[in-house]
Structures are given as structure tokens and as C-alpha cells.
Amino acid sequence: MSKIQEVKAMVEAGKSKLVPGLVQEALDEGRAPTEILQAMVDSMSVVGEKFSAGDIFVPEMLIAAKAMSKGVDVLKPLMAGDRSNALGTCVIGTVAGDLHDIGKNLVSMMIESAGFEMVDLGVDVSAESFVQAVKDNDNVKIVACSGLLTTTMPALKETVATVKAAYPAVKVIVGGAPVTPAYATEVGADGYAPDAGSAAVKAKELVTA
Ligand code: B12
Q1: pLDDT tens, 50-70?
Q2: Which of 66, 161, 191, 200 is 20 to 30 A from 179 in CA distance terms?
Q3: CATH 3.40.50.280 spans which residues of the chain?
Q4: 3-state secondary structure the chain
Q5: For atom 18 of ligand 1, which residue has the closest CA?
Q6: What CATH code is assigned to 3-79?
Q7: What are the residue ranges of CATH 1.10.1240.10 in the chain?
Q8: Which atom of ligand 1 approaches the CA of 149 most closely?
Q9: Class of domain 89-208
């Protein structure tokens, strides 16, 4: 088994203690950080499928998520790009009722790399808290909202509406597994992206256009 396959297998198995070392070994073998990251993202898809099939339950999903986060910690310094913060501030969070944060954290990392200062509000963030963060921080150009559950998609809609009503000039981008470009348009968001890399491109595009 290649190191990258081992990383994938150990994330799926939720081996938090083993994953960071294996990620480092894969890097030492010359594998690209993006390739290792993709392997871990793929692991989470497998975990989701097993959960859907009833083969695993919430605790197993949680320990797999922890293992992935430990692996991402090793990659993070290597994925940092432009740290100039010249493009302004981006407020990011997972919407109310939703506790998923791996995707949000990756999006945050990539938008930061594109040259934004990040204000990360964490998970289960109310629409009002997003608005308060725009008020409390300087030069907020983007609000990025993550939602992973079909049940929290209405919270995405409410957040976009509340932020836009309070700050029409701030650009709001949305994303997360159940979100589609059509849904983003329907709820009045300024942008959508399917993954962390394209989220950073979209954020940059919205403030430089
Ligand atoms: C890990 C996990 C958990 C963990 C989360 C831990 C954590 N710290 O995040 C825990 C155990 C807490 C959890 C709980 C639950 N979960 Co869960 N979970 C997952 C799982 C397996 C992986 C999610 C993940 O991290 N993916 C990897 C990341 C990298 O991908 P991502 O999040 O999609 O993010 C990428 C893009 O979407 C995009 N993106 C994300 N955010 C944003 C934001 C912006 C602005 C942009 C532009 C882009 C963007 O870029 C990201 C990076 O490329 C998914 C399965 C899946 N296939 O997604 C289920 C899944 C999301 N969970 C599910 C469910 C049902 C639940 C629970 C309701 C289970 C329960 N019965 O309690 C609870 C809900 C808790 C809550 N209130 O939030 C369902 C959702 C079904 C649905 N359609 O609503 C899924 C799809 C599993 C399934 N197949 O059934 N879960």
C-alpha cells in the first residue's frame, strides 16, 4: 500500500495518532500537499457513504473527522500562499444548526492563502452573528457561509438575506455539499464554489472585479 493509500485508510479508520506521521511520510516521499489533501477528502466521502448505508454511526464519523483535521494541520503551513491580507477581510462560518467544519476550515485556509484576513466564527453561527462580525471588523469584503445539511439550507438563505439587508456592498459566497449554483442564485448570494480552491478564486474575483 502506498503512503497516500495508508493516509486514506487511516483517516477512514479514525486513527488520529497515526495520520499526522503518515501525512509527513507521504510528503517525504514527494507527494504534493494537494494530492494528500484530496485523498483525505475522498476518505470523508467514503465515511459519508458508510454512514448512509448504516455501516457506521455518528461517533465513527466524528473520529474520522478528527483524524482528517490532524492531517490537515500538517499540510496547512505548506498550503499557505500570499499572506499580505491586501484583499480585505473575509468573515467565515458554518450556519446555524450545523456543526460540520472540515470543509469550512479548508475554505478558510485557501481564502487566507489568496490574500484575505480571515475572521472565523466557527460553527452553528446565527445570521445575526455574521452581521455583528461585519460590524466589528475592519474592511470586511466577503462573508463566506458553509452549510452541509439539507436541513440547514434555510439557515443559509436567512444568513444571505440578513447580511445583504444590513451590508449590501459586502459580497456573500455560499457552499457546502448540498449547495448548488442554482440554489446560491436563488437565495441571492454573490457567489458559489464547489471546493476550497475555487472558493478562493471566487472570493478574489468578487473583490477585484
Ligand atoms: C464528518 C461528518 C460529520 C461530523 C462533523 C465533524 C466536523 N468537525 O466537521 C459529525 C459527526 C459531527 C457529523 C454530524 C452529523 N452529520 Co455529518 N457528515 C460528515 C461527513 C462524513 C464528512 C463531511 C466532511 O467533512 N467532508 C469533507 C469536506 C472537505 O467536504 P465538504 O464539507 O463538502 O466541504 C467542501 C465543499 O463542500 C466546499 N465548501 C464547504 N463549505 C463551503 C463554504 C463556502 C463559502 C464555499 C464557497 C465552499 C464550501 O469546499 C469544501 C472543501 O473542498 C459527511 C459526508 C459527506 N460526504 O459530506 C456527513 C454528512 C454531511 N452528515 C450528515 C448527517 C445526516 C449528520 C447528522 C444529522 C447525523 C446525526 N444523525 O446526528 C449530524 C448533524 C450534526 C449537526 N447539527 O451538524 C449527512 C447529511 C445529509 C443531508 N443531506 O443533510 C452526510 C452527507 C452523511 C450522509 N451521507 O448521510 N457529521
Answers
A1: 999 999 999 999 999 999 999
A2: 66
A3: 89-208
A4: CCHHHHHHHHHHCCCCCCHHHHHHHHHHCCCCHHHHHHHHHHHHHHHHHHHHCCCCCHHHHHHHHHHHHHHHHHHHHHHCCCCCCCCCEEEEEEECCCCCCHHHHHHHHHHHHCCCEEEECCCCECHHHHHHHHHHCCCEEEEEEECCCHHHHHHHHHHHHHHHHHCCCCEEEEECCCCCHHHHHHCCCCEECCCHHHHHHHHHHHHHC
A5: 48
A6: 1.10.1240.10
A7: 3-79
A8: 84
A9: alpha beta
68-100 per-position pLDDT tens digit: 999 999 998 888 766 677 899 999 999 999 999
Nearest atom in ligand 1 to 193's CA: 47
Probe ligand 1: pick from 61, 72, 90, 110, max atoms within 8 Å of CB? 61
Give residues (CB < 6 A) around ligand 1. 41, 44-45, 47-48, 51-52, 58, 61-62, 65, 97-104, 106-107, 144-146, 148-151, 173-178, 193, 195-196, 199
Residue 178 C-alpha to ligand 1 middle, in angstroms? 9
Q: What are the cell numbers at 70?
A: 490532524
Say what the pTM is: 0.95
Query: What would the mean pLDDT of 111-120 be, rounded to a whole number?
Result: 92
